[in-house]
Every structure is written in C-alpha cells, then in structure tokens.
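Entry: STAS domain-containing protein
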Amino acid sequence: PMDSTRRFGKYRVEREVLDEQRLEEITQRKAYSDIHRSLTEQLRDSLRCTLPKLKRGVMSSLPVLYWLPKYSVWDYGMPDLVSGISVGIMHLPQGMAYALLASLPPVFGLYTSLYPALIYFFFGTSRHISIGTFTVLSIMVGSVTERLAPDVDFLIMNGTNITSEVDIAARDSFRVQVAAATTVLGGLIQVLLGVVKFGFVGTYLSEPLVRAYTTAAAAHAVVAQLKYIFGVSPTRFSGPLSLVYTLKDVCSLLPHTHLPTLVVSAVTMALLIAAKELNSFLSPKLPVPIPVELITIVAGTLVSSYAHLNSNYTVSVVGEIPSGLSSPCVPDVRLFGEVIGDAFALAIVGYAISISLGKTFAIKHGYKVDSNQELVALGLSNAVGGFFQCFSVCPSMSRSLIQESTGGKTQVTLIVLVTILKLGTLFQELPKAILASIVFVNLKGMFKQYADIVTLWRSSKIDLVVWLVTWVSTMLLNLDLGLAASITFALFTVIFRTQMPTYSVLGNVPGTELYVDLETHRQAREIPGVTIFRSSATVYFANADLYLEALKKKEDVGFWGDTCIEGTGSEREDQAWTERENGTVFVIPTTPRTPDGPSRWEYLKGGAPDSTSLGWMSELQDGDTTTLGSSSEDTLSRDLERVSLGSLGKWTWDIHSIILDLSTANFIDIVAIKMMKNVFQDFSEIDVDIYMAGCQASVVEQLERSEFFSDSITKRHLFASVHDAVLYCLNHRGASSFPRYDPSLCNTPKTENYSR
C-alpha cells in the first residue's frame, strides 16, 4: 500500500508566479550584513565559545581520545593482536632493507619503524594504514644522502696520499644527519600545510586517480622486490624512467639468477597463494582469518635456520638485528637550505600515498578520513621521528594490506612493535626472498584494479583517460612528478568540461512543470513563442563566449554582427560566421522553425525597413532576397547596407521571450555578467524579452554586487523557476499572438494553478 501510494501520489499547489523581487518579499531575505558578520562579531563569538571549541579542537587533533575509550577488547583484541604481530614482523626486515635503499645503516630502519608509528597512533585518523618505511620514499632519501654525502668526500688519507678506502663510519654519520634534517623539514612542511587546511588537495584525488595511482605504485613496489626474488643486484636509478631502467637492468641480470633464492621465492609464493585461497574459502566459518603471513615467516625462519640456507646456499637473510632504542638529538639546521626542495617533494609524495591508501581503506570499511588531520599526523610523525634519526615515512602498501587482510581494526596494533623489537634476534635467519614474496602476493589485490579500465570504458571515457594518464605518468615519472602530472591533468579535465558544456533548448513535459532537452526527449513540447536555453555548466570567463555562440545558434539569430549563411541544421553549423567590415549584416527567416530543424535564413539587402509596417516583409521575401550561391552573390557584399536592430521593429520574429535557465550555475563572474547585459540589450532592440530562472542565492548576490540590475533590468526579470518564467511570458506577451496558457491542458496527477 505504501509503494502504491508513492507511485501514484498526487499533490496540488496553488500560488502566484514568483519573480526574484516577489520571492524576496515573501521569504524576507536577509541582508548581506546579516549573513556575513563583521570581524568584531566573529571575534566576540569565538571568545564566547572558546571552551566548546577547544574541546572539539582537542578531540579532532587527538582522534585517539575519540575511539580509544570505545575500544572493545572482545571485538577487536584478537584481530588486532594477530595483525600487530604480522605487521610488526614485516616492519623488522622491511625497515632494515629500506634503510639500505636510503643509504643508511640498517638499524636506523628499525627506528623509523617504531617512533613515527607511535606518533601516528595518537594523531592519525585511518585505522588500517601502517606507517613506516616505504620503497619510493627510501629511494628519494637515498638520492639526497648520496648527493650531499658521496663516497668521494670520505676517502681515507694515508699521509699525503688519498686511498680508495672509504671512512664508512664518518660517511654514515653524516648521511644520518642529512636524512634526519630532510625528514624534520619535510614533517614541518606537512604540519604547516595541514594547519592552513591544505589537506583539501585530497578532494582533488578522485577515485579513478587514486586507484590508478596506487596501481602504479604497486608496480614500483613489485619492481623493487625483484632483486630479492631472483637474487640479483641491479644498479640503482632515480628520476623519470627509473622504473624502466631498473626493469631493464633486472632483465639483463636474469641469466645470473641465484637459483636457491628463486626456489625459495617460488615455493613461498605458491604456498601463500594456496593458503590465501583456502583462507578465503573458510573465512565465513572462522572467527578470525588464519595468519598466513605470520605462519609463513615463522616456518621460513625455522627452515632457514635448520637448513643453514645462508651458509650452505648463500641465500640472503635479514642478518643481525640490534636491540635497544636511540636517544633523541637535534638535527643540523644548517642543512635545511640544501634539502628544502627534496623535503617538499617528500612531504607531498608521502601525503599523497597516505591519503590515497587511507581513502581506499576508508571507503572499503565505511569510515571517514580527515585529510587535514592526516597531513598533520604524518607531519608530526616525520618531524618527531627526525629527532630520533628516522628518515621519511608514509604508509606502506604491503604492510597496510597485511594489516587489513589479517583482520586489524584499529591502530592499537602498533603497540606490539615494542615487543617485536625485543624479539628481533629470533628472525635473523629469515630469508629476504620470503619477505619479497609476501609483498608480491599481497599486491595481488592492487593489480585487480586494472579491471577499472573495462568498467570506465563503459561508464565514463573522461574518467578512463584520467586513469590511464595517472597510471602512465606515475609509472614513467615516478611517484612525485607522476602525482603532479596526474592532478594537473585531472583539474584540466574539470576545466575542459566546464568550458565545453552541453547547451540545450528545453521543452515542457506535457501536464507537468518539468522542462527537458527537446533534442533528447520525444514527448517534450516547445512552448509557443518562448525559448528556454540552458547550459550544463556554470557561466564564467572561460565559457562566456561559448555560451553566447551557443545561444546564437540555438536561436538562429542573425543579427549579431556576423554574416549568416543560408541553410538548416548542420548545414549552417558547418559554415563559418564571417564578420563584415562595412557594418552589421542581417538576415530574416523565410520558413518558420519546426521540430525537425531551425528556420531557413536568407541575406537581407536594401534600405532600412519601416518599423511601423510589416508590408516590406512580404515584398522582400517575394523578390528582394539573395541566397548563397545565386548569381548575385558577388555583388551581395557590396550592396548590403547596415541595418540597426531598432529599425527591424516588431517584425515576424517567431519568439517573443527567451528564458535563460541558470539553475546549474553556482557562481557568475564579471565577464559573464557583462555578457548577460549585452544579451538583454541586444534582444530588447528587436522586442524580444530576456528572463533568467533558477538563480541560486549566491548568484543573485554576485549580480547585486556587480550592479547588474538597473531601470531596464530589474529583479522582475529573475524567476524562482523556469515554470514561473514560462507562465509569466505566456500571460505577459503570449496574449497578442498566442492563446493564453490554459491550466486545463495539464491533465495529470500533478497539477499546479498559478494566478497572476
């Protein structure tokens, strides 16, 4: 019964036709000063509400105070424990391995896996991302440390002779200072950007862009793991096309693949894939997922230890893991000037990865990530971590996937890291190939995002182009330049869509107050004497001229200072509009507009017609016209004379009113306002009225501030809706040449009666 009532429901509205002036009288619109308070009032109100705002500010700045009191050990305890152990074990070898990518001693990778994660625990808003070392950021840090602390600067001198031996202790000490200074500066940049609400840039990371970006980042992670999978040592590359160069170098080293390492990798991946499929099959029957990664790591360590894979088969293992924590120290601020560019790049790339992964997991699990707070949290993680000799961090795709896949629900899992650091010595015999295999298999979900190409091809070609451009630029230009190129291109598509919108002439759906595109709806009916013009985008400086051109074409208007060409539909559109030097050229319609196409147009020549008589029209149409392609075409340009708009008078124009539907506009700038004024003025000279409908309050305010309204253009020309404007036009101008609007024609369940 409820569905039936909704489907066939009716309502009846009886009100007067409302223009903007009458609407403001009825609604008692507030003045600008009432809406926008003065600075003094804002300051007084802020001081009055200091305590509540301070409370909300503390809660938003420390998200842990919001969710920790609600934490349920029964619901989240076991999944977080399993996830924390799995992720913690991943932190150990990844931290050490990525420290080598940053050209730092392995122990500093362990510090980087601990301190920043502790800071993020208090300030972060994502529940699933795992803060710590990341391949690309480690490589970027390594490029800075090697540039400012190359080996040639630390060669040991033997008396007056310089040997080829490098002072590794001095070199590593200075590289740690460079990395710490870069990290602290990058963290301060992130905090500053977060405070000034720069996190809004996250809103420009659309879902296609984010998914393409993470897909390309997964490819970077895979290529970085290939050397551990095959047991080779490729050359390090950085900058654009580094992925291509690295992949080429790895392929060239394939004949030198270390077979024992490859066997370990292949067996591990096969077992992981089989175990994960089994886990997926049994997941409905299990209270928590089976910790496949944890079992793999423990089993791999035991096999490696008892089979002596490192000593007997030279399989690379994690090696010695030192225990103990580092003490804080102030970084060398003199290095800030030399690393500020690198610090800014690290800040942007780190935030992009963080917000991309955070939004991905938030959408999947149904919660919200605060982009500004994420920027602050990541910045504090880096800034504080830099004081403990950590290098730049961000979420790791592989660890975050493991944390999510093992059932982790909150950031409380990082507490397990403290314990893991004390148990690190137990995993010294863990082969690096097993870690690389785990990363490889866990990235499988990211590679499933290539199916987006098929989906976007069917749904949105523009989003597909954004996806492809993001993927290609990130793959070829690396994550920093690729991100910049992707965002720039995504914004360009938005500008392109607003600059090249769809223009349409609307018709009425019989029996309703609805108006739809005449070209795309068969049952839509044109209103006699009234043209309703709409743009699918807001009108501003970038598309104001296009809006005007579209209005000319839709109206078949030939009095805009251009030479019109005879033809219909696409015939005229295919011809160029050529502005004449000797004055404005006018044309007249020789056939009325029909639903199948616009009027036909012919050149008008001769003197100015008499505005008080229409007899000249029939005479001119009978024998004083020259069509394009006739024998007198050559003399036409010499004989045509200037005709003013006013001299045309009330001639046989097929419309008397034009309604501009501005319901899609959320703002209007000075260029568009001037264009609108010209439209009002030009059409008024041939006695065609212009009205605007559906203007939002912000648009009306901008029109008022720009002094758009005058004695000739008042708020009586603005209407609350298109239907209000249509009824007014028919009642105001339709009586002279068209029947008055008859509400009885609207014989439908939805009826509206309007009174003048």
